[in-house]
Fold this protein.
Amino acid sequence: MASSDVHVRICEQEILKYDLEIKALIQDITECTGPQSKLTELNADVKKSFHNLRLRIQDFEQMALEQDKESEKQAMMVQVEGHRKQMLSNQTVWRKANLASKLSIDNMEKQALLNGADSAVRQRKMTKEGLAQTTSDITENLMSISRMMAQQVQQSEETMTSLATSSRTIQETNDEFKTMTGTIQLGRKLITKYNRRELTDKLLIFLALALFLATVLYILKKRLFPFL
């Protein structure tokens, strides 16, 4: 049982490690300024971390199903559900960060091409207002992603707090059930003991009555039929 608890804790630590890795990679994608090959490399790392995280969650779920106590099984299944929700939330943030970063890199590459061109016509098309609007849009997207990541971190903390509270409640309920079970077993032993004692008392009374009747019959026989 102790070995099983160690495996469970190791699995939980690895799930937390991959979750933090994914969040850090998403932050790197948000701050990525190019080139596209760098963004592609970061996305490959994110996919690998998601794959590892998914496997560890599956391992944790299997450990939950193998628990002997129903209370521990239910508490671990609640944690599994929380980990999966957090993973789906990270995937949503990752897609948005990836899209914003791609747009930012595309705009910067276009700007570099325009700056390097000799044609004055192309330079006039990219007005200061357009550049300002593009920069504003990119900044707004990055700020939105940052806020979303902050909300995800807060939700993760709330989820972990909720899981801890649920685990304590289930454990307390299990302890109460154990106490009630002990009381019921003690009552059952007392009732069995009293039933046995009652049966013994009845048997003794029956034997005493039989002895009494036998004595009376013997006396009557001697007095009424002395010749027998």
Remarks:
- The CA atoms of residues 111 and 131 lie 9 Å apart.
- The helical segments are 2-31, 36-65, 70-116, 120-125, 128-224.
- Residues 128-224 form the longest helix (97 residues).
